[in-house]
Amino acid sequence: MTLPPPATIRTEVSLPLRFADGYATAARVFSFDGLVDGREHLAIGLGDRAGAGPRVATVPLVRPHSECLTGDVLGSQRCDCGPQLREAVERIAGAGGYLLYLRQEGRGIGLYTKLDAYALQDGGLDTYEANLALGHDEDERDYTPAAQMLHALGVPGVALLSNNPDKAAQLGRLGIAVLQHVPTELHLSPANARYLATKARRGAHRLDGPGRAESAG
Ligand SMILES: [Zn+2]
After folding, report:
1. Is 28 a catalytic residue?
2. Which entry of 139, 142, 173, 206 is annotated as an active-site residue?
């Protein structure tokens, strides 16, 4: 285990949230100084972590969510990021905890390169093969900033909302105890079915959580 360099809270401010489907909840957003990659990652406190008071002692439910402009903002159905984000906010608001919004577009390869990879996928490669063809690793995400944010928030242990074993392994190595694994739901649509199947096959993701089929309309 190697503790990451310490980061400190820079600003915290309340941020009332309302999603396109009308779901609304209180939130508190934190920015940081000292994150190792210099990117502007955010921690979003929800439920009993949405207030300005002293930190709560219970184990928080934590979801590291990698930024996906096409899925989170535009509702792209080529991936399941938008529904995953929406589900995570509501579940964390219910349990109390943090959504870590990580600026790791396209598994760390960046937005433009992700679109290049989409073009290769339309030519027949799967998402991992496309990343490799562009000279990138299958998954370049480094969760050191996520661990730094949790340490800065005074969170030594988490219930981890994720199906991705790499997130739990990296956080454990960075001094964050994963006390409980909480699977996310499946968000299946005709457009992302192949992507999700590839993720399960190539990334050892657990797809045995509670399923919820969604129509792509
Ligand atoms: Zn996405």
Report:
1. no
2. 139
pTM: 0.86
141 is catalytic: yes
Strand partners, 117: none
Buried-state track 161-195, b at ≥16 Cβ within 10 A, e below 16: bbbbeebbebbeebbbebeeebebbbbbbeebeeb
Distances in whole angstroms, Cα of residue 18 to Cα of each of 41, 60, 74, 126, 143: 20, 22, 16, 34, 27
List, for residues 154-185, the tens digit of each pLDDT value: 999 999 999 888 899 999 999 999 999 999 87
Residues flanking ion ligand 1, Cβ below 5 Å: 68, 71, 79, 81
pLDDT tens-digit readout, 92-112 = 999 999 999 999 988 788 899
SS3 41: coil
Is residue 34 within 8 A of residue 53, CB to CB? The reply is no
Q: What is the DSSP string of 53-65?
A: SSPP-SPPEEEEE
Written as six digits, the tokens of 168 are 């739990």
Instruction: Report the alpha-carbon angle 82-85-87, nearest 5.
Output: 105
Contact between 199 and 160 under an 8 Å Cβ cutoff? The reply is no
Per annotation, catalytic residue among 107, 141, 173, 201: 141
